[in-house]
Amino acid sequence: MKVVNIQNLTEMVKENFGRDIKVYFIRINPYPMNETLKTIYDSIADLSWTKIYDTQALKKGGLSRVNKTIRNIEDKLKRCENDSLTSEVGEYVISILGKQALLDNLNYIDIPLAELWKAKVKGNPGFDFYCESIDDKLIFGEAKYESGKNAYNEALEQINDFITEGKDYEDLVEVKMFVSQKASDNMDNENRGFAAAFSSTSIENTKLVNHIIHNKHFNELLSYDELLLVAVDINE
What we know:
Blueprint: E1 2-8, H1 10-17, E2 22-29, H2 33-45, H3 56-78, H4 87-106, E3 109-110, H5 114-117, E4 129-132, E5 138-144, H6 152-165, H7 167-175, H8 181-188, E6 193-199, H9 205-213, H10 216-220, E7 226-232
Parallel strand pairs: 2-7, 5-6, 6-7
Antiparallel strand pairs: 1-2, 3-4, 4-5
């Protein structure tokens, strides 16, 4: 994974929209995809986080769930050949690389991939990834992969829908075990952030950012503490 562009849009958003919110745009190139998929699998297979289970019984149950999920994801990753992606694997790639871009470039704190520890529910289960910002804000991330498209609209729209449905606070019930007390306290005061990770084409950076900031779903999210945008150049 290589970062090809990073922009702090905070002052621009404040000047143009009068909103005091931290906004970053990060763009990454995930190729060669075979190396990226290996890195993704290695990341998923790292079980060091399971130390949060404080009894042997909980650890046994947690590891059983995690190992089943890892085998399922591994099977999906193996179906990708010669730098091609299925739509399902595309969302995994966007989700994991989107979060990793925040960890590597903004020094945010990692929270394991949600699918490894969240209880399975029918329908749309909630946000795809999480991390904690250096300002002690819990970040809720949504990933969207659309073949041949810049999928920022779909990611931003889904975030707004999830907020309306209260998915962020529903997810907090489970994700709380990974976050600091300060981040948890900030959630009590409705202070939090959101991240939209999405597939992108070869569109020029300035044009892509301009399209995003004039998107209605982007504007609807400017009342929160942070809004982080990660474009993953899969649709070249």
